[in-house]
């Protein structure tokens, strides 16, 4: 009998992951698939647990949003091995699931998993950890680092544009060196967003569809550019904005020019390491259950 791991974070998203995990276990049992629960107190312990479980499991089902998938992707990267991955969306941020049209309802998502139709999907890597959906830094990343999980649950997405308006006009852009496999740039950066697809929240924000990082850099901000800023704050839509530099890259080296300034990143919605950093593209790395 096949053995699947069911990974969930009881503290993530809406807090209903444990209930969903029991539902998934029952559905697997009905389809002659054995399963084990995988959960841990923190991300580091979870990565270790998943890596250890991969010695015995035939597949993995992750319950949660981009942050939960980041833990899974990190375990896969550090193991240099993957297993087929099923997703039951359940987090605050579900960009990855929306991009690949994975149903948000657990019943429909479970049907997709049991159909066993999989697709090879690329992700990113930074500091030996995964980038499942997005990597960002700059003033709006500073903004997001100010937003607590409790605020997201209480106020929803409206908390982001509210905080964005509070940051408008505060300080200046960062000066950042960008180096891809082809070119080097020195750019003022109000916010930089690198995504693993050309979609944000299931909505396309660029016509480019290269199998690589999609990087959009909002170079500077002022009240004269408030319309572009508000469009980004409310929708994430960067398309066609003159104040924005776009590039695609499989390798991206980032360095802050002013060494006295710390520039913190966010990866898949959670706080990440400070610059300088290097991002690497992991082509066709995941084997994910998707709708036919």
UniProtKB/TrEMBL annotation:
GO MF terms, alphabetically ordered: ATP binding; kinase activity
Domain of life of the source: Bacteria
UniProt xrefs under Pfam families: DAGK_cat
Annotated TM spans: none
Any one GO BP annotation for this protein: phospholipid biosynthetic process
Domain spans labelled DAGKc: 1-130
Cofactor dependency: Mg(2+)
UniProt keywords, alphabetically: ATP-binding, Nucleotide-binding
Family that this chain belongs to: Belongs to the diacylglycerol/lipid kinase family.
NCBIfam families reported in the protein's UniProt record: YegS/Rv2252/BmrU family lipid kinase
PANTHER family: SPHINGOSINE KINASE, SPHINGOSINE KINASE RELATED PROTEIN
Name of this protein: DAGKc domain-containing protein
Species name: Vagococcus carniphilus
